[in-house]
Amino acid sequence: MAKDFRELEDSNRSRNPTIYEVSDPRRRIVLRAGLGALAAGFLSPLVSGCASAPVGRTGGPLIGFKSVPVSTADTVLVPEGYIATPAFAWGEPVGIAGNMPAFRPDGSNSAAEQEAQIGMHHDGMHYFPLEGSRRGLLVFNNEYTDDGLLHPDGMKTWNAEKVRKSIAAHGVTILEIEERGGEWRIVRPSRYARRITGATPMAISGPAAGHPMMRTAADPSGTRVLGTLNNCAHGVTPWGTYLTCEENFIFYFSGPEKPDAHGARWGLRRGGRGYRWHEHEERFDAVKHPNEPNRFGWVVEIDPMDPTSTPVKRTALGRAAHEGAWVVQTKDGRVVVYMGEDAAFEYIYKFVSRDRVRAGGYAANRDLLDHGRLYVARFDADGRGRWIELAAGVNGLTAERGFATQGDVVIKLRQASDLVGATKMDRPEWIAVDPNTSEVYCTLTNNPARGASGRPAVDAANPRANNTMGHIIKWKEDGDFDATTFTWSHFVLAGDPANSRPEAKGNIRGDIFANPDGLWFDARGVLWIQTDMHASVMYKDEYAGFGSNMMLAADPRTGEVRRFLVGPPNCEVTGVVCTPDMRTMFVNIQHPGESPTDRSDPDNPSRYSSWPSGTPGARPRSATVVIRRRDGGVIGT
Ligand code: FEO
Ligand code: CA
Ligand code: CA
Question: From the CA of 590, how far away is ligand 3's center (Å)?
Fold first, then answer.
């Protein structure tokens, strides 16, 4: 989700020592040397020391396309020799038999119709093959809504039906799609077609299930909840399920004028952030239902192959403003899930399962994500790092401090991380693991508050004050993915060498970008980077040289970055996956033409963009772009 810079979330008022507060003078000297080097432009070694690593299946240079220039055109630009076709836009019927309402471009579809149509504001996405690269399930998140576009008159009037439609446009979309003659289309009807929304019944499992803080009037058991919200990025398990991650869930809840310490730490506010659901759907009124927000902020597991299955909130993975949940396996077959919490001065997490993955799909692994150890990352100034366990009774997480059970720990995860001295990061977004080297990469999208008066100072891992540009950090675990120590470095500091501010120049080798968000390794080992500059700053001041948001390809061996795609104005580029043959790539374009200041104006919806229709006056729509090479070749070569 693009966050308004004016209210950049900074709920972390914890006071872990920054590097400047560390008493060991040697550690401080390391950091000062690093900052001196930063001015000279070589703080972060771009080459990972793995130049001899295998390059992937095809060998040769990783990146072969001609770079796309920056742009502000109302279209999607891709390199010469490529075709980008918009598809799967907000409002198209997903293909439920007997329930395929046509999209009405004026926003007049009902809430019930929206429940059978593609949701709004596409984000993280995966392709599950049914017939290899020809037919499969495309599953993607619908992160949030622009209610200025969702209803005929936007939010000028407000009622329960509009709230229901807004809730219905959130969640997850599951489409069966197939390729015919180079074109991809939705299979309709399909037995797999499904919408999961902010009202879909879900189960709660793991250590928070049944916890007193999870119980509400509607669910005295604390084990059942309606819906998933603000589904940002995602993950995929080895047993074929989809993980959808609840990011800015707190935006939907209206709290008391003065929230308690727990509510304040999670950003609860009177009135929420403008969704106004609480006016007609009482469970979003956290004054009347103070535990309802605790039932959000989880990683939710969905079986896309069974449209009757109940999604499950896996609380062992912890509660956070979850960006995503990226799954890898240890050599002995356990899973490790990497997670970042996208908010200023929040943390990076890792879950290590207790059990090994068993053959037999989801049926054989239904409880696997319910048992394991949860850790938070600490990045030290000497380039080393440590995973600190978050468990009741260890590392100072005692009953006296409010952590009597693991349920307490996972529900109050931010408070637990504050106590154990984890490193406060510059908005951790996507995480990706290099298939050739097992190095783990994480985008840190920005943090203008870093180093501001009264705020946490720079540290070795977050080395720039007023970090408007963002950076990408990487680490290598000591041994297997379940290790508790690692070595880290920066992959790249984003920025523009033409910037007059030294700390915003960055050290990119190749095409410039700012605010890295989406991050994905394809099977060949190309690192795809997607950007999320906010519409309120895009095209202005030090962002002027970047044009609109974009996607780039990086060679992790050399650090070279090359621009592959530019989206339409005011959009965010987020969500990318290829078919197994790597000849079709799906990329999501979220909120084209969004207003820099508020919800879109229903009387002038195409003020900034009318993508994908291009018709003047038409409402812009989030959609997927299907990218192919004209010669049918492998994407990116
Ligand atoms: Fe939903 Fe952190 O972007
Ligand atoms: Ca973002
Ligand atoms: Ca994101």
Answer: 10
C-alpha pair distances (Å), 208 with each of 80, 133, 366, 629:
51, 39, 17, 47
- Atom from ligand 1 closest to the CA of residue 248: 1
Mean pLDDT of the chain: 92
- Counting beta carbons within 10 angstroms of the beta carbon of residue 634, is it exposed (0 to 12), middle (13 to 18) or buried (19 or more)? middle
pLDDT in tens, 462-509: 999 999 999 999 999 999 999 999 999 999 999 999 999 999 999 999
User: Residue 123 CA: which ligand 1 atom is closest?
Assistant: 1
- Tens digits of per-residue pLDDT, 253-310? 999 999 999 999 999 999 999 999 999 999 999 999 999 999 999 999 999 999 999 9
Q: What is the pLDDT of residues 141-180, one digit of tens each?
A: 999 999 999 999 999 999 999 999 999 999 999 999 999 9
The Cα–Cα gap between 139 and 125 comes to: 6
Distance between CA atoms of residues 283 and 224, nearest Å: 14
Residue type, 612: P
Task: Please indicate whether residue 9, judged by its CB atom, sits closer than 6 Å to ligand 1.
Answer: no
Nearest bound ligand to the CA of residue 144: 1
Strands (DSSP E) contained in 312-383 are 312-314, 326-329, 334-340, 344-346, 348-356, 372-379
Q: Residues 318, 411: contact at Cβ < 8 Å?
A: no
| Closest ligand 1 atom to 1 CA | 1
Give the Å distance between the CA of 428 and the centre of ligand 2.
Answer: 9
Helix, strand, coil shares, percent, the chain, to 5: 15, 30, 55
The token duo for 351 is 């879950």
Q: How many angstroms is it from 89 CA to the middle of ligand 2? A: 20
Q: Is the pTM of this model over 0.90?
A: yes
Distances (CA, A) of 26 to 19, 268, 422, 458, 464: 11, 40, 20, 17, 20
For 103, the token pair is 């999209």
Question: What separation in Å is there between the alpha carbon of 124 and the centre of ligand 1?
Answer: 10
Does 3 have pLDDT greater than 60? no
